[in-house]
Amino acid sequence: PLTFKDGTTLALSCMADYGAPVFPFLAVGGYTGQDFSAAEALLLTFSLNNYPAGDPRLAQTLLWESRFLEVMRDFQKRTAGTFDVTFMAERSLEDEINRTTAEDLPVFAISYAIVFLYISLALGRYSSRSRLLVDSKITLGLGGVLIVLGSVLSSMGFFSYLGVPSSMVIIQVVPFLVLAVGADNIFIFVLEYQRLPRHSEESREVHIGRVLGTVAPSMLLCSLSEAICFFLGALTSMPAVRTFALTAGLAIIFDFLLQMSAFVALLSLD
């Protein structure tokens, strides 16, 4: 209808039920000129009352949207070849993020497992094949990977506690980023520990302290420079980039602190 009340037998109004006008160029498409009745596309919008998080009525709205998506998927299958049907709800984006996150978990697990095996085997000094498990650094490899994972989770948990929303980029990128930085520090520390011999009169604690005096400053400067770069990136006005930069920078700091405490203890036990 192009007038307040259409002149046809249907006598349709151009006003929607909520009182706003429904413009033809927003509701239909695929027409030529002003012949809106020849449109080949139709856009339908179903408006629901939304509620803030924590409101019990929000669960009912989410349930309605979930059922709506199920009905539309079934309708899309039944009309395949006749109509091209596309649809989405307000929860569709969050549902898709949860789905892709679940699909990425095996990739994360495989990546961390490969790095664990590489660290365990590369740091070992082998005298024979029979002593492979003894000479390999399984404890250090496992501990190093767990420290990296713990630093990422600690950073995400800290900002979640502050109410800073997370994003898909954080889950996909930050674990691999911190893993690369953490593995590099592990190799620097352990290889320097193996290179510097332990003096006959010094204890293991003194030996590790001497090694830390050599490599810890470079590890500190490396971690600080990378963290500062990320924190500078948090000055951007884009919320997703700001959250990513804050999480990555804090995760690198947590990783360094855990390596200077927990990983040093693991090295002394190994």
Question: Would you kindly provide a written description of the structure presented here, covering whatever features stand out?
Answer:
65% of the residues lie in helices and 1% in strands. The protein has 270 residues and is mainly α. The chain has 3 domains: 45 residues, no CATH class; 39 residues, no CATH class; 176 residues, Multidrug efflux transporter AcrB transmembrane domain (Multidrug efflux transporter AcrB transmembrane fold, Up-down Bundle). It is elongated, with a radius of gyration of 29 Å. The protein starts with 23 loop residues before the first helix and ends with a helix. The model has no long low-confidence stretch (mean pLDDT 83).
Globular, elongated, flat, extended or rod-shaped: what is the shape? elongated
- Which CATH-level-2 architecture of the largest domain? Up-down Bundle
Beta-strand residue fraction: under 5%
Give me the number of helical elements: 8
Describe the main β-sheet briefly.
Answer: 2 strands, antiparallel
CATH topology of the largest domain: Multidrug efflux transporter AcrB transmembrane fold
Under CATH at level 1, the class of the largest domain stands as: Mainly Alpha
Mean pLDDT rating: 83
Q: SSE order, as H and E?
A: HEEHHHHHHH
Report the radius of gyration as a whole number of Å.
Answer: 29 Å
**Which stretches of 5+ consecutive residues score pLDDT under 50?**
none
Quaternary organisation: single chain
End-to-end CA span: 80 Å
Main sheet: strand order: 1-2
State the helicity in percent bands. Answer: 55-70%
